[in-house]
Amino acid sequence: MKIALGSDHGGFELKQILIPCLQELGVDIESVGCHDSSSVDYPDFAEKVCSFVRTGACELGILICGTGIGMSIAANRHREIRAALCHEAFTARMSREHNNANVLCLGGRVIGPEMACEIVRTWVQTEFSGGRHQRRLDMLS
Ligand code: RB5
Q1: Fewest CB within a 10 Å sphere: which of 17, 23, 69, 101?
Q2: Is the pLDDT of residue 30 over 90?
Q3: CA 133 to centroid of ligand 1, rounded, Å
Q4: Taking a C-beta distance cutoff of 8 angstroms, is the pair 45, 32 a contact?
Q5: Is residue 133 predicted with pLDDT exceeding 90?
């Protein structure tokens, strides 16, 4: 599986921590930056990750900013993107099973490395349930 990964400066540190976690899961990472902790604008990175997902170049995307809020607002403005901001594993699992979330947003200043890895592991390994959930997603398009 290929995942587009991006952050702003507020998510940079957690993004770097998540790279080995994703590699352990066998994920192929398309990294869009940012590349250090200099101040940048989160919509730019949301745009890059969402483009990879929308074109099908990547199956899923992960976006990290300080709170995850800016990234989730930005990502959900893109058509066909269903971005879920998650702070624990249960909502991460449900965002895949029920919402077919194709972008995961995390808050680098909100959750620690262990929780972040648990969320990512759960999110990547959970499949969409389809059925009545697909009908509800169709109502959103
Ligand atoms: C950057 O300071 C911060 O505002 C950003 O990372 C994010 O938390 C926005 O929602």
Answers
A1: 23
A2: yes
A3: 31
A4: yes
A5: yes
Element spanning 4, H or E:
strand 2-7
Q: Hey, is 133 helix, strand or coil?
A: helix
Fold of 2-140: Ribose 5-phosphate Isomerase B; Chain: A, (3.40.1400)
Write down the catalytic residue from 21, 34, 50, 65.
65
* Domain locations along the chain: 2-140
Give residue 43 CA to ligand 1 midpoint distance, Å.
Answer: 10
Average pLDDT value for residue range 59-82: 98
pLDDT interval class at 141 (50, 70, 90):
confident
Longest dimension (CA), the chain: 44
Average of per-residue pLDDT across 94-108? 98
66 lines ligand 1 (CB under 6 A): yes
Beta carbon of 61 within 6 Å of any ligand 1 atom: no
Does ligand 1 lie within 6 Å of residue 68's CB atom? no
Q: What is the model's pTM?
A: 0.98
